[in-house]
Recover the amino acids of this structure.
C-alpha cells in the first residue's frame, strides 16, 4: 500500500539553482521499519498493522489541519523580484515524460455534484475573469520556491459551473495520470487559482500546460498539473501520492 | 519503607522521561530521512540509520512521534509545575555555581553523594533540554503550518529559516544528550534511579 509506484525525479538543472537542493532520488523502498528493528534488535513481524496505525494518525492530522485552516488567512505574497529563477520542475517522472497537450483537442471534463457538466474548451476558459499572484510553493521534500501564477479564482469557477459548495471534496484527474483531491474549504479559499499562466506567459508544459491548480495553502503535491477533469464529490477520491502515504490534507 | 532509600524520581517523572526518550529517538531518525529529501547543508544522513524507508514513511513516523512528544511534554511540564518540583529541583540557579561545579567536575572533585540534588550544570542542561524541545516544537509547527501560524513564522525568520532553526535545535539536543549519556555511563547508579526511582 505504501510502496512508491515510481521514483520522484527532480530536474537537475533547475535544482542546482535552488539554495537548498535535493539531488538525491527517493529510495525506492517500502515504508520500512528498518530503523526501528535496529533499535529493538528484532524484526517486527506485523509491519502492516504498524503502517495501518501510522495512517490512522495521518488521518487524525487531516482533521487537525482542517480545524486549523482559517479560510480568511492569506498566505504571504511577494514582490516579483523575489521570484525563484528558474522555477524548479518537479513531477513523479522526468522532463522527457512531460505530457504534450493539443490545445484544439483539449477539453476540461466536469462531473459529480455540479449543475453544468459541459466540457470546457481552452477558449472558453480563457474568457473567465483572471487574476494573478506571487506566492511560495512549498514542496513536501522541504524546499520552497516563489513563483507567479495567473488564472481564474477557483471559487469563481466552481460557482460558474453550479458546484454543490456544501460537498466535501473536489477531485482532479490529469493528462499524466496524476490525480489528487482537496477539501471544499481550501477549494473556496481566495488564493486558490485555476491557473493558465506562469510569470505572465501561457503555462509552459513543465509547469502544467494547459491548466493547473495553484494553492499557496497546500504542499506542492496537492497542486495538480495538466488537469483534464474536475469533479465534486462527498467521497474522498484520495490521490497519487496520498494513497502511498503522503498526508491527504497536505496543508501549509 | 524505613530500611529502603527514599524515592528520588517519582513514577510520573520516570514515565515521562522514558516516553520522551522514545519519542526523541523516533523523531530524530525519521527527521534525518526527511532532511535527506532536501538537505539544507552539504551532507546527508546514511539511509541505513534513518527511519521510514522513504520520505512518505519518515513523515508518517515523524507526525506520529510528534504527538507523543507534545502530549508527554505537556504532562511533564504540568506535573513539574503543580507538584512544585521544578522550583525545588532547578532553582535557585546561579552562574557562579555553574562555573564552580563544572570546574569541580572536570577535576573529578564534584560530589555525587546525594543524587536527589541536581548540581548546577545538571540543572542548566535539563532546563536547556526543556527549552530546546519547546523551540523544536515551535519551529516544527512553522515548517508544518507556515501559513496558519504567521506570527511564529515571522519569529522564526520565515519558512526556510525555520528549517535551519529546527535542524540546529536537533543538533543541540543531540549534543546535550551525548554529554548526558556519558554522565550516566560514569555514574551508572543514576540509570537505576531513573528506572526504579530510588
Amino acid at each position: 500500500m505504501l510502496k512508491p509506484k515510481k521514483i520522484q525525479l527532480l530536474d537537475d538543472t533547475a535544482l542546482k539553482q535552488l539554495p537548498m537542493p535535493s539531488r538525491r532520488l527517493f529510495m525506492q523502498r517500502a515504508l520500512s521499519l528498518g530503523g526501528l528493528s535496529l533499535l529493538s534488535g528484532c524484526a517486527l513481524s506485523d509491519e502492516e498493522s504498524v503502517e495501518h496505525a501510522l495512517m490512522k494518525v495521518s488521518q487524525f492530522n487531516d482533521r487537525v489541519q482542517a480545524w486549523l485552516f482559517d479560510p480568511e488567512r492569506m498566505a504571504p505574497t511577494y514582490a516579483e523580484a523575489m521570484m525563484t529563477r528558474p522555477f524548479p520542475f518537479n513531477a513523479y517522472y522526468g522532463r522527457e515524460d512531460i505530457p504534450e497537450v493539443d490545445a484544439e483537442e483539449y477539453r476540461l471534463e466536469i462531473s459529480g455534484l455540479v449543475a453544468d457538466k459541459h466540457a470546457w474548451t481552452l477558449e472558453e476558459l480563457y474568457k473567465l475573469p483572471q487574476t494573478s499572484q506571487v506566492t511560495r510553493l512549498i514542496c513536501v521534500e522541504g524546499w520552497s520556491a516563489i513563483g507567479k501564477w495567473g488564472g481564474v479564482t477557483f471559487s469563481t469557477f466552481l460557482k460558474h459551473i453550479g458546484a454543490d459548495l456544501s460537498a466535501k471534496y473536489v477531485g482532479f484527474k490529469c493528462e499524466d495520470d496524476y490525480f489528487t483531491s482537496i477539501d471544499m474549504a481550501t477549494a473556496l479559499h481566495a488564493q486558490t487559482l485555476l491557473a493558465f499562466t506562469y510569470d505572465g506567459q501561457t503555462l509552459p508544459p513543465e509547469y502544467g500546460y494547459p491548466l493547473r491548480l495553484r494553492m499557496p495553502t497546500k504542499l506542492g503535491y496537492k497542486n495538480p498539473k495538466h488537469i483534464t477533469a474536475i469533479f465534486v464529490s462527498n467521497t474522498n477520491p484520495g490521490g497519487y501520492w496520498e494513497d502511498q502515504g503522503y498526508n491527504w490534507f497536505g496543508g501549509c | 519503607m524505613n530500611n529502603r532509600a527514599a524515592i528520588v524520581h517519582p513514577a510520573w517523572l520516570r514515565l515521562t522521561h522514558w516516553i520522551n526518550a522514545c519519542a526523541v529517538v523516533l523523531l530524530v531518525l525519521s527527521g534525518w530521512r526527511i532532511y535527506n529529501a532536501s538537505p539544507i547543508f552539504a551532507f546527508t544522513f546514511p539511509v541505513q540509520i534513518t527511519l521510514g524507508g522513504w520520505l512518505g514513511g519518515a513523515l508518517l513516523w515523524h507526525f506520529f512521534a510528534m504527538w507523543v512528544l507534545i502530549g508527554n511534554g505537556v504532562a511533564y511540564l504540568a506535573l513539574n509545575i503543580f507538584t512544585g518540583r521544578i522550583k525545588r529541583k532547578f532553582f535557585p540557579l546561579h552562574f557562579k555555581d555553574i562555573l564552580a561545579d563544572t570546574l569541580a567536575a572536570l577535576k573529578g572533585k564534584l560530589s555525587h553523594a546525594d543524587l536527589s540534588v541536581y548540581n548546577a550544570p545538571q540543572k542548566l542542561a535539563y532546563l536547556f533540554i526543556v527549552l530546546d524541545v519547546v523551540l523544536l516544537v515551535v519551529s516544527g509547527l512553522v515548517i508544518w503550518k507556515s501559513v496558519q501560524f504567521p506570527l511564529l513564522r515571522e519569529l522564526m525568520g520565515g519558512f526556510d529559516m525555520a528549517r535551519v532553526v529546527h535542524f540546529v535545535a536537533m543538533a543541540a539536543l543531540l549534543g546535550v544528550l551525548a554529554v548526558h549519556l556519558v554522565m550516566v555511563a560514569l555514574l551508572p547508579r543514576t540509570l537505576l534511579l531513573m528506572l526504579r526511582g530510588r
Remarks:
- The two ends of chain A are 25 Å apart (CA to CA).
- Chain A touches chain B through 52 residues (CB under 8 Å).
- DSSP finds six helices and eleven strands in chain A.
